[in-house]
Design goal:
The complex is a heterodimer.
Chain A: H1 32-37, H2 40-62, H3 72-85, H4 88-119, H5 121-134, H6 143-150, H7 154-178, H8 182-190, H9 195-237, H10 248-257, H11 261-289
Helix pairs in contact in A: 3-11, 4-5, 4-7, 4-9, 5-7, 6-7, 7-9, 8-9, 9-10, 10-11
Chain B: H1 35-40, H2 43-64, H3 75-87, H4 91-122, H5 124-137, H6 146-153, H7 157-181, H8 185-193, H9 198-209, H10 211-236, H11 245-254, H12 258-289
Helix pairs in contact in B: 3-12, 4-5, 4-7, 4-10, 4-11, 5-7, 6-7, 7-10, 8-9, 10-11, 10-12, 11-12
The chains are: A mainly alpha, B mainly alpha.
């Protein structure tokens, strides 16, 4: 049997002067500097400017050959010049026309495939077999074949773009539709939705995060494929009858061949700009208007 | 009071005896499936059937319509070419060349991404840098860097590796960084409670908690790298030494050996399926699926 421990009784004591205790600055006013640094945009802008300054300084001080790394200022001038005199805008338009054609046709085919896959088990098997096989195949690898079948021209590029769009979009949409919970389906039937209205009002909104994911992946693959195709076969693919030919990738490649390196960088900047615009403007807007507003995706 | 309602009269139905219970029956609750239905219900059988019928359609189309083999060779001749190049030719060496470059680029990209993300989690400046750099470079197709890479590193594996690093780095860094940011504070506090700090904190708390996002990044990075590599080799493969799988395809198409193009495509598909379904699937099964983070 264990003995109980003795109770310890501490002696009473007087704390003395309590007014000396203070909590420190609980709500300190931030200085102007701290407020500015706390702004996200300001910090990122500073990093961007610092990177550009570092680039400019490095090229000026180290005397690196301008064929290896041109000055930032030269690149900016080249970009300005290319937009004004070198038909850069038309090249962007050429690229985007081909891209949008391929993307749109790809979406239509993907929709048909997905519809077939949802309606019948056999269709679903066909879709999963095809995607498993063709999704890992880089679309650009099909370009030599496409050139053989469709000849030199934008139809070959559209064919490869189709391939790069269809599989990710169909795959994601199919998994999205399959993942719509039984409860939601029953709610839809309870409201008397049938056929097309059942699909548009219930299945598509419920599967929208996956569908959007597929659209984004499809865009990323298509954009990469397009640039690669133009980079390589741009001259051949371009409509050689007119002077206003070739796309962005061709702009980069042709200028590299002519050793006009500032223009290569200018082309890369344009590629970045177009990519950022599509991703941050179009897709982010769709996302914030739909899945984020509906509370299906946080942040 | 007038508010009190009168109760409805209870209806009492007369008793009756059901004589014909034996006639009531519920139909076929468990129909025996025929052998054909049973076989057709096996997933693999249906998929194999689809695959075989696709191949059969290809073969029949090319043989019956007498399609010009330069445009569209028969399936059998493409398969024949694949086997003969694998056994006697140098296709295996070319595959090995591609895979080697890919692994080097992928590993380097992952290492740089790890360092960047470590910096990003430890300081606000690093975090800002990562979100800026990924926003800028992720939409840039890495193949567009190839002309520059050739200027800087010359014609050779160096340029290929540079482009691959670019393809992997941003996708992995972006996903890992956002994965780390979304690790719940509860998990973080548990880690701090265990006295984890610095690198052990990252390795034991952040990485496992953010593994689904990291895996997504790795898969996207792989997909971009694989596409970039084939694209780069299609064009500049020959100049970079032995030449890889992409070069094999390009060379065949230049020589108008279309069955060689198909043989190369088969090989590309095979490698892609192996990596995605064997390697990544197994990693997922052993980690995030086992830990119940993903079904």
């Amino acid at each position: 049997m264990s003995t109980l421990p003795q109770t310890v009784v501490r002696p009473e004591f007087d704390a003395g002067d309590l007014s000396a205790a203070s909590h420190g600055d609980v709500a300190r006013k931030l200085s102007l500097w701290e407020k500015i640094v706390d702004m996200d945009g300001v910090r990122k802008l500073t990093i961007l400017i610092a990177l550009m300054m570092a680039w400019e300084l490095y090229t000026r001080l180290s005397g690196v050959s301008e064929y290896i790394l041109p000055k930032f200022s030269d690149t900016a001038v080249a970009l300005y010049d290319a937009v004004l005199n070198d038909q850069l805008l038309i090249m962007i338009k050429n690229s985007m026309t081909v891209l949008l054609t391929g993307y749109a046709i790809g979406l239509v085919i993907a929709t048909l495939l997905t519809t077939a896959a949802i309606m019948t088990r056999f269709g679903s098997d066909v879709l999963s077999t095809l995607t498993a096989m063709l999704n890992p195949l880089p679309a650009i690898a099909l370009l030599p074949l496409a050139l053989l079948w469709f000849g030199l021209g934008s139809s070959s590029v559209v064919f490869t773009l189709l391939h790069s769009v269809i599989w990710p979009v169909a795959l994601n949409a199919h998994t999205g539709f399959m993942g719509v919970s039984e409860t939601q389906r029953m709610v839809g039937r309870n409201y008397g939705l049938k056929g097309v209205s059942y699909v548009t009002k219930l299945l598509i909104p419920a599967a929208f995060p996956s569908i959007l994911m597929g659209l984004k992946v499809g865009w990323a693959y298509a954009w990469r494929t397009l640039i690669a195709a133009e980079l390589v076969f741009g001259g051949a693919i371009a409509d050689t009858s007119g002077t206003q030919s070739g796309g962005l990738g061709w702009f980069v490649f042709a200028n590299q061949m002519d050793l006009r390196i500032p223009y290569v960088f200018a082309g890369l900047f344009t590629v970045i700009l177009v990519g950022v615009l599509v991703e941050s403007l179009i897709f982010s807007t769709i996302e914030s208007r739909t899945v984020r507003r509906w509370g299906m995706q946080s942040s | 009071m007038s508010t009190q309602k009168t109760l409805p009269e209870p209806i009492i139905r007369p008793e009756f005896i059901n004589e014909n219970i034996a006639l009531a029956h519920t139909g076929d609750v468990a129909v025996k499936l025929s052998v054909f239905e049973k076989v057709w219900n096996i997933n693999g059988v249906r998929k194999a059937f689809i695959l075989l019928s696709l191949v059969a359609i290809w073969q029949a189309y090319t043989v019956l319509l007498d399609v010009e083999p330069l445009m569209f060779p028969t399936f059998l001749s493409a398969l024949d070419r694949l086997v003969s190049d694998l056994v006697d030719g140098d296709l295996l060496a070319k595959v090995w060349f591609s895979v080697k470059v890919l692994v080097i680029g992928y590993a380097t990209g992952m290492a740089i991404a790890a360092i960047l993300v470590l910096w990003g989690t430890s300081s606000r400046l690093g975090g800002d840098f990562i979100s800026m750099a990924t926003a800028m470079f992720n939409p840039l197709p890495s193949i567009a860097m190839l002309p520059l890479a050739m200027l800087w590193f010359g014609l050779g594996t160096g340029s290929l590796v540079f482009v691959l690093v670019h393809a992997v780095l941003w996708a992995v860094a972006l996903n890992t960084h956002s994965g780390f940011k979304n690790v719940s504070s509860t998990l973080r506090m548990i880690g701090e409670n265990y006295g984890l700090r610095g690198v052990p904190f990252v390795v034991k708390i952040l990485v496992p908690a953010a593994l689904p996002a990291i895996m997504t990044g790795m898969k996207v990075g792989w997909a971009f790298a694989w596409r970039t590599l084939i694209g780069a080799e299609l064009v500049f493969g020959a100049s970079s030494g032995g030449g890889g799988l992409g070069w094999y395809i390009f060379e065949s198409s230049q020589n108008i050996e279309t069955e060689g193009v198909f043989a190369g495509l088969f090989m590309v598909i095979l490698i892609g399926i192996t990596v995605e379904n064997l390697i990544f699937r197994n990693i997922e099964l052993k980690t995030i699926n086992r830990w119940g983070m993903q079904r």
